[in-house]
Predict the structure.
Amino acid sequence: MNYNKDETKISVIITTRNRRYEAARALRSVFAQTVAADEIIIVDDGSVDGTREYIASLHLGTYQYFYNTTAKGTGSSRNTGIRAAKGDLIAFLDSDNEWDSRKLERFRQAAAADQNADLFCSRYRQHREFSTVILPEPVSGRTLTVREELSLHNPAEASATMYRREFLEKLHGFSETDGIDLDRDLLRRAVEMMDVNIHKIDDVLSENWVMYDCLSERGGRYLQEWEKLPRTGQSVAEMEKKNYALGFTAGAFDLFHIGHLNLLRRCGEQCDRLMVGVMTDEFIEHQKGRKPFVPLAERMEIVQSVRYVDEVVPVDFHNTVKPDAWTLYHFDVCFSGDDHAHEEGFQREQRRLRELGSDMVFFPYTKQTCSTKIKSLIDQKLV
């Protein structure tokens, strides 16, 4: 398709939900561009963590802010941004990602040089838990069609892509069905309707951070499971149903480290809501014979900021025993590290919780990193 426009305007759309710090990082990367966006739109999908107020307090620059009073999903939020945008070119940025400062400059140059392109995409650096990869990975041999590429990978990840507005409007925007890979779905629908022209930029211009609540990370699995539906008869909601409604775990969470994060992530993956108990300073001193390095209020704030956590409560002498905690919170399961799995006290608590209709589940303990080891090194003045 020939768009034949000598001058184009770029609208940037950032979508977010309960990611105030990440959203601020993403927004900073937009304001840091060597060539400025013509407008910036933030669509907040019902955040309850103070995202709007936090970003406003930073005084980063001018933007429009749209707030969904109820969560509608990533596709709907992107479409809200498209309807509000005035630009001929639309660049999306999911709030868990950020841009290289040259991104809009390179994309604007590409759009001016290639009037036939429907969309423009660069490569991006994807940061996973223990590795970093540059995507899309190059394919050796002959040049693939868009349809062939879609069977191998996602050639146009949203945060690394800029679309012609007319292209998006022909497709009526992104799907608003929850639980699918939105970027690939958009291109799949496009290749059924038209010849799609993608202008590829070989530079790495986006840093994508895999967050475990994000649609992009879940999308591939959702898509694989969706393709199985005719055989299994399961709905997406059934496949995503978690094992428990309310989960509970407790700990000191002093000198917060990767072991704590691993535990909270595993807990969050198993339940719809996760409540975390944080031991008081007095209780830690009683139990361990020393005060924590980090005071209770700060430890609770750190834990509350973890995205897998829904609620944080203090734990002291009256609710440290898990059945006692159950009488207060009525959780469906209590999670603990498996370093306690064979202790008689924990086994006794597990039996009692089962009698109450709850349960206790043990997760692998991150042995290479723990607060006790860190404190020992501090005591030895080795760190």
